[in-house]
Design goal:
The complex is a heterodimer of chains A (388) and B (468).
Chain A (H helix, E strand, L loop, with lengths): L2 H10 L13 H16 L9 H12 L14 E4 L13 E4 L16 E7 L8 H7 L6 H10 L4 E5 L12 H14 L4 E4 L6 H12 L6 E5 L5 H11 L2 E5 L4 H13 L7 E4 L9 H16 L10 E3 L7 H4 L8 H19 L3 E4 L2 H14 L15
Parallel strand pairs in A: 3-4, 3-10, 4-5, 5-6, 6-7, 7-8, 9-10
Antiparallel strand pairs in A: 1-2
Chain B lengths: L5 H6 L14 H9 L9 H5 L4 H11 L5 E4 L6 E4 L16 E7 L4 H13 L2 E3 L2 E3 L3 E5 L5 H12 L5 E4 L3 H10 L6 E5 L4 H11 L3 E4 L3 H13 L5 E4 L9 H17 L10 E2 L11 H17 L4 E4 L4 H14 L13 E4 L8 E5 L2 H13 L4 E6 L6 H6 L5 H11 L9 E4 L7 H8 L2 E4 L7 H8 L7
Helix pairs in contact in B: 5-6, 6-7, 7-8, 11-12, 15-16
The chains are: A alpha/beta (388), B alpha/beta (468).
The complex binds cobalamin and iron/sulfur cluster.
């Protein structure tokens, strides 16, 4: 008989014959005696808590249950990329979202978070040194850059067509479309296609690239409240792509924009949301909390928010702690990648499904975390640290 | 959401609106109690008048957080763990920021121990007007020699820092406790195998104890027994495994414990949680890799409700991200951190010094001010009230406008301090430069986008008389 059962019975009935119970461990005998004494005499040694409390605790102990919640909602599952069989040319597809619960121990998780590497259509000399050192060798050719990114562990590639901005190079959309084709040919990874953020040019750009990447099921990044999102939705639907719904840290804006995109005809399983990633030390808590709220609302059944979340973790590099040479802060060649890693970790634990990143060491570290978080390995010998 | 409504709390207040608490009405005081801006003792009638005894008792039960506050150490640097009321910061806010303890072990020589202790004690890194600190020392009994352990504890006890005694052997812990029980060390750890002896040791000195077990169920059993044996202050250690060897489970176990405490009302789980990220050093030769991994584990545990972390590295590159994350997550979401909107003098400005403009969002102000100080620029910094928004959000939300700047300029009296009429504004505010000129009559100079370039900008461009 287990100690718990015994004690519950002791509590239920008022007396018990000890001989009938077999207890071999001296320790248990002691505990039972003590409880018995408490039950009968109603008095206790000065330091022990009140009888009722002990009983209550023991009851609770008997009924230990994992605190699993039930959720009426479900996060949509979005597929990025399409293989030959599906009409595209990707080597594999990536699925994000699809959760039916907030935590792994509650069950209902089918997909792990994924990592996308940022690739730009023109060189990025303003990059911090740590990033320049790695990528400058490749940045004259987006296709080379993408190939190297895949070699460094990308699940997806995000191709930012920043040069199309009239204030940058005003690259014609036809030329940008060629870049997209080159990258599609260079790698098998599914593709995220980013605009320049220019509200006039982006809709035109997305119409063109959606067409040349027809059926590749890319993620068009992004639609926001300041531009003609309907044109982007129409292009995505017509040519078989997904759309990223991007707002800046405002949950009501997110709801409004999602609602509009759906109304304009975007199927639910083609919407990914991006609440904006503020850097660690520079407003990360806003992002962290917004993602938690998105996930919780989505699972509670708020259908206008139940979509997977993507984060531009690369923003971590906007923090001066990530790149500035300050001797008291320690060597920046370690500090920078770690800054990006912790930024990614935070949004991931808040519930992000996809992290857009830049430093290979950070990507490697975050992959290790993903493997770890999703492994079912039982912790062993957790006191070993005493002897490090 | 906080667990209790103001109305529930109100019912257990005197209801006389006497105003002695300074809140004006009992209802206002009820809200303040829930938000933990005030404590129940501030209602003098309630705590002093016999007729309110029952109300008082009920009120205490209502406002006591589901996660007990446990104090480690004594004096100014004593540290309080736990006290949380919510699972998610948006539901209210988090309270006592995660304490970071750094380890020493008794096989280090005295000098090394003393220097690590000193490093922790004097560690202070200013960020946004707050000083980021480390909280305490974890002393590991590694040598197996109780004299060595005792003297290591003595060395640490000479400092002002809280400390924890780490061993699974009761005799060893006893030696450590006896050095200075009045310093209120945390006794680590009570396990399945030593619970009785450790509980007795801690109970006899009323010390806090960490219970360690790698499953939440087992842990709750240990807690029940510790309580039965008279231990009141407990810290939960669900164990920390290295990545790939069970860390995922450990993180989930922290969530399980916190949810039991907060959302299921399980009192056995209602204690602070701890982690030992220094497992990253197990079998790792490369110190940089170990420090990075330690920072990652610690950050993950911090985000999964850990109230106490034991670390090994003292490297700034790995501590800074962790401590910054802590600062972010423990920022009260109800109030953006602001500074007073007024005129600040940086360095020793005179009548020819430049006047710069920024917003009253603390992050913005401190970033700008520290850049100016670092560049040894003497100037006036005019901080305008944007309701705590940074420059860009303030621009986007129309909180930084010509008329706002005009009012700030007038109130500051800066026109009596400088001879010129030139105002340097953030590059991000370029859009409203004309608007400011029209409203104020001052000449506006658009500065760099990032404040780190202010010193160079001033050197190149500033002249109180010329056109620049
Ligand atoms: C955190 C954040 C918020 C927080 C604000 C927190 C706060 N207390 O300020 C919240 C969520 C409230 C918010 C709200 C909004 N935001 Co917002 N937000 C951000 C975010 C992520 C970071 C801003 C920040 O903290 N920067 C750090 C501080 C230190 O920067 P700073 O004040 O600008 O100071 C720097 C410079 O300006 C300069 N500087 C400062 N002072 C001075 C002085 C001189 C003399 C000089 C030379 C230089 C200088 O140096 C400093 C250091 O580099 C940015 C995106 C980003 N990554 O930048 C978006 C961002 C600023 N937000 C944006 C928007 C649109 C908004 C909203 C209108 C929309 C919304 N979501 O509701 C609202 C507006 C506010 C309102 N309610 O009216 C846009 C602005 C777009 C634009 N350019 O117009 C941004 C850029 C996001 C985006 N890409 O869409 N936001
Ligand atoms: S002191 Fe107490 S009774 Fe008086 S107003 Fe405040 S809460 Fe009410």
């Amino acid at each position: 008989m287990k100690l718990e059962e015994l004690l519950t019975r002791l509590i239920e009935v008022d007396s018990v014959e000890l001989e009938k119970v077999e207890i071999d461990v001296e320790e248990l005998v002691m505990r039972v005696r003590q409880s018995l004494m408490l039950t009968r005499a109603g008095t206790m040694p000065a330091q022990t808590p009140a009888v009722a409390e002990v009983r209550q605790e023991l009851r609770e102990r008997v009924s230990f249950e994992l605190p699993v919640d039930s959720y009426p909602g479900r996060i949509e599952e979005v597929t990025i990329g399409a293989t030959r069989a599906e009409g595209g040319s990707r080597g594999y597809v990536v699925r994000i979202g699809g959760q039916r619960s907030l935590y792994l121990f509650e069950g209902g998780w089918s997909n792990r978070p994924v990592v996308s590497f940022d690739v730009f259509d023109i060189p990025q000399p303003q990059f911090p040194k740590a990033l320049r050192e790695i990528w400058s060798e490749y940045w004259d050719s987006p296709a080379e850059w993408a190939r190297e990114a895949v070699r460094r562990g990308a699940d997806l590639i995000t191709l930012h067509l920043v040069s199309t901005d009239p204030k940058v190079r005003d690259t014609p959309v036809g030329e940008a479309a060629k870049t997209v084709e080159e990258v599609l040919q260079a790698v098998e990874a599914p593709l995220v296609i980013g605009g320049s953020g220019n509200p006039e040019k982006d809709p035109v750009l997305f119409e063109k690239v959606a067409e040349v990447a027809e059926n590749e099921r890319c993620l068009l990044a992004s639609a926001n409240l300041d531009l003609d999102h309907e044109r982007i939705v129409k292009a995505a639907v017509k040519h078989n792509h997904n759309v990223l719904s991007w707002v800046s840290l405002d949950i009501n804006d997110q709801k409004t924009l999602n609602r509009l995109l759906l109304k304009e005809g975007l199927p639910r399983d083609r919407l990914v949301q991006d609440p904006t990633t503020a850097a660690l030390g520079y407003g990360l808590e806003y992002t962290y909390t917004m993602i938690e709220r998105l996930k919780i609302s989505g699972l509670k059944g708020e259908r206008e928010l139940s979509f997977p979340v993507s984060c531009g973790v690369t923003n971590a590099w906007a923090a001066r702690e990530a790149w500035m040479k300050v001797p008291e802060w320690g060597p920046r060649e370690y500090r920078g990648p770690l800054w990006e890693t912790i930024n990614a970790l935070a949004v991931m634990l808040a519930g992000a499904d996809m992290m857009m990143m830049l430093h290979p060491a950070a990507v490697q570290a975050i992959r290790e975390v993903i493997d770890t978080v999703f492994s079912d390995a039982k912790p062993e010998d957790t006191l070993a640290w005493l002897k490090v | 959401m906080p667990r209790v409504s103001p109305l529930e709390v109100y019912r257990n207040l005197p209801g006389t609106n006497c105003g002695e608490c300074g809140e004006g009405t009992c209802m206002a005081f009820a809200s303040a109690l829930i938000e933990r801006r005030r404590s129940y003792g501030d209602c003098k009638p309630l705590v002093s008048e016999e007729r309110y005894a029952e109300k008082l008792e009920r009120l205490i039960a209502l406002v006591t957080p589901p996660v007990k506050e446990v104090m480690v150490g004594t004096g100014e640097r004593a540290c309080v763990l736990g006290g949380e009321e919510v699972m998610y910061r948006h539901e209210l806010t988090f309270f006592n920021p995660t304490a970071v303890f750094v380890d020493v072990s008794d096989d280090m020589d005295e000098e090394e121990i003393a220097s690590r202790v000193k490093a922790v004690e004097s560690f202070g890194m200013e960020r946004m007007g707050q000083v980021l600190r480390l909280q305490g020392i974890a002393i590991r009994a590694k040598s197996g020699d109780d004299t060595r352990f005792g003297s290591a504890v003595m060395t640490v006890a000479e400092s002002s820092l809280p400390y924890m005694l780490c061993s699974t052997e009761p005799e060893m812990l006893e030696v450590g406790v006896e050095v200075a029980p009045e310093r209120r060390p945390l006794v680590y750890a009570a396990t399945e195998d030593n619970l009785k002896e450790v509980a007795e040791l801690a109970a006899s000195h009323s010390l806090p104890v960490a219970a360690s077990a790698a499953s939440p169920e087992k842990l709750l059993e240990l807690v029940a027994e510790l309580r039965q044996r008279g231990v009141e202050d407990i810290v939960l250690d669900p164990g920390t495994a290295p990545p790939g060897r069970g860390l995922g489970r450990c993180l989930e176990n922290m969530v399980v414990l916190r949810r039991l405490a907060i959302e299921r009302g399980e009192r056995l789980a209602g204690y602070p949680i701890m982690g030992t990220p220094m497992v990253a050093w197990l079998g790792e030769e490369d110190e940089v890799r170990a420090a990075m991994r330690e920072c990652i584990i610690a950050s993950a545990q911090l985000l999964r409700h850990a109230d106490l972390l034991v670390m090994h590295s003292l490297e700034m590159f790995s501590l800074l991200p962790l401590l910054t994350l802590r600062q972010n997550i423990y920022t009260d979401p109800r109030v953006p951190i602001q500074v007073d909107a007024k005129l600040y003098e940086i360095g020793k400005p005179d009548e020819n010094s430049p006047v710069l403009l920024t917003t009253n969002f603390a992050l913005t102000y401190y970033t700008v001010a520290s850049d100016i100080e670092a560049g040894k620029v003497n100037c006036y910094l005019l901080v305008v009230d944007t309701e705590g928004l940074a420059v860009e959000p303030a621009m986007a939300g129309a909180k930084l406008t010509g008329s706002v700047v005009k009012e700030a300029l007038q109130n500051s009296g800066v026109d009596r301090k400088v001879k010129h009429r030139k105002l340097i504004i953030p590059g991000m505010a370029a859009r409203i430069s004309g608007e400011i000129e029209d409203a104020t009559g001052w000449k506006v100079i658009v500065g760099p986008v990032d404040s780190s370039r202010i010193p160079a900008f001033i050197q190149e461009k500033w002249s109180p008389n010329g056109q620049g």
